[in-house]
Design goal:
The chain is mostly helical. 75% of the residues lie in helices and 4% in strands. A three-stranded mixed sheet has the order 3-2-5. The protein starts with a strand and ends with a helix.
Amino acid sequence: MKRQNQSSVVEFILLGFSNFPELQEQLFGVFLVIYVVTLIGNAIIIVIISLEQSLHVPMYLFLLNLSVVDVTFNAVVMPETLVVLTTEKTSITFAGCFAQMYFLLLFGGTECFLLGAMAYDRFAAICHPLSYPMIMNKRVFVKLVMFSWISGITVATLQATWVFSFPFCGPGEINHLFCETPPVLELVCADTFLFEIYAFTGTILIIMVPFLLILLSYVRILFAILMMPSTTGRQKAFSTCASHLTSVTLFYGTASMTYLQPKSGYSPETKKLMSLAYTLLTPLLNPLIYSLRNSEMKRALMKIWRRKVDLHTF
């Protein structure tokens, strides 16, 4: 294989599902619909929470941050993915590939910590309702949000810079839909053993630890739910917890399988599907699971809508 150093690489080729051209055409329509619905759903949440003062409490402000992350996370991946699905091979510049990986890691890492913070918030609210205002005061909330974003930035800066410091082998074809760490790493012409140790350790700390803390929080929440006297209340709480855990498991499960072994034995198609699960489906499901089924969100939406109608009437 021809070697070429990093400075001589000017672009990569994203192959997508080029081995299945008929599949690419079908996926384009599906992905476009999912992308539009995801943007609309998260945009509605951002607008409702921003405009409605009664929702300016930690639970909904966490949701606001999650929706911002999901919108930007989706915007980093989906436009390029849609372009890849319309062509047999799509070129992306070296700088463009770096930027895509950087922001993918930034928003992905931030979401990992935000979901953990949200689980802790629900644990405090349900298991310690009387002391909740003290546990989750404004200062604690701000610290958790800042920690989530700063951690995402730190992870992205360290990992993306490290990956793109390696020399790459030609022809520079990335058998993936976008510039994600594992498929890009397969083009590296150097020993990546130290990086893989870092990647494994980082995945444990960034993905698995928050996931285990979320599970622990929900176990405590479920025990608290079982103590509820109302059967209807228990059923509603169980339904909410099950929905939350479904979204969380989908995100953390597929992300951990992707990043625990950067040069794993999974087939390229399997890797693509796992990546799509947490970059495409999770941002779509989060508005449905966390917000749009919420009665307070619905009431706030109706209040904003009536306010808008009254303004037009008068």
